[in-house]
Design brief:
two-stranded antiparallel sheet; 51% helix; elongated; disordered C terminus; EC 2.3.1.225; acyltransferase
């Protein structure tokens, strides 16, 4: 468990939960209960919408609190004098690099985060919306969070449109309530459109990074794909787990533990 004490990240996390709770409040109170009071669709939409909210919260909390793949610090000070020595720095360590800030060797694709102040394995970027780095161990949950936000935004827009196209004729005709419902519906529509488009752009970028095996850091450095001929499903399985693809949507631990439990420092330093 880890929590980065970054003011910007903490504010973004709070804004995220405020937006989700506001969407839940508007959909449940002002749309479903106000426009579908006597319909069997009302309990269905309440359960379905809140299930997505629950899954979103679980995925987001895991992305926020789980270790993204922090490279452990050495127990003793490491002598880097042999870093460029061919005989001491053999072929096995060829892709390992040195971090002068952490004063340790780091495995391939690991990069230093100036906010977390540690090196992260397969670091993609530091995301303020989860107040954490997106790395080897939590990229799955970050991707799930994006997908659930998209689903919630689309679901909210659909329910708003349905409430406008098929208004409830037997509902209360109080003008103040009708105006309040319209105001909340418009605000939620704007929120869903803005957050939905923003999250879709990030999700497309994440899928591109996974399927083409190139993190955002590597793209900036113009290194190209890390493994050119790696199958797409194998790349997805590395992030989402070795279980059935249907389980990839659930915020549960299904990562390949054998792969992640390999010691980071597997050689003497």
């Amino acid at each position: 468990m880890a929590f980065v004490k970054d003011p910007c990240g903490i504010v973004c996390v709070l804004v995220t939960y405020m937006a989700v709770l506001y969407a839940d409040y508007v959909v449940t109170h002002w749309i479903i209960l106000q426009t579908m009071p006597n319909s069997l669709w009302a309990p269905f939409h309440v359960v379905a919408f809140n299930t997505i909210v629950f899954l979103l919260a679980m995925a987001h909390l895991k992305a926020v609190l789980l270790d993204p793949g922090t490279v452990p610090l050495p127990q003793i000070r490491i002598d880097f004098s042999d870093l460029h020595s061919e005989k001491n720095f053999g072929h096995e360590r060829e892709e390992w690099t040195m971090c002068t800030r952490c004063e340790t060797y780091r495995p391939p694709r690991a990069h230093h985060c100036r906010i977390c102040k540690r090196c992260i394995r397969r670091m993609d970027h530091h995301c303020p919306w989860i107040n954490n780095c997106v790395g080897e161990r939590n990229q799955k949950y970050f991707l799930q969070f994006l997908m659930y936000v998209c689903a919630l935004a689309v679901y909210s827009v659909v329910l708003i449109v349905i409430s406008w196209v098929y208004p409830c004729e037997d509902c209360h005709t109080d003008v103040s309530q009708a105006q309040s419902r319209m105001m909340h519906s418009v605000l939620l529509l704007l929120e869903s459109a803005l957050f939905g488009l923003f999250v879709i752009a990030i999700m497309v970028d994440q899928m591109h990074a996974i399927l083409y095996d190139e993190t955002a850091v590597e793209a900036v450095q113009q290194k190209g794909p890390y493994r050119i001929h790696r199958p797409k499903m194998a790349l997805l399985a590395e992030v989402c787990g070795r279980g059935h693809p249907m389980l990839w949507m659930l915020p549960c631990t299904s990562l390949n533990r054998k792969h992640h439990d390999v010691p980071l420092l597997s050689h003497d330093v």
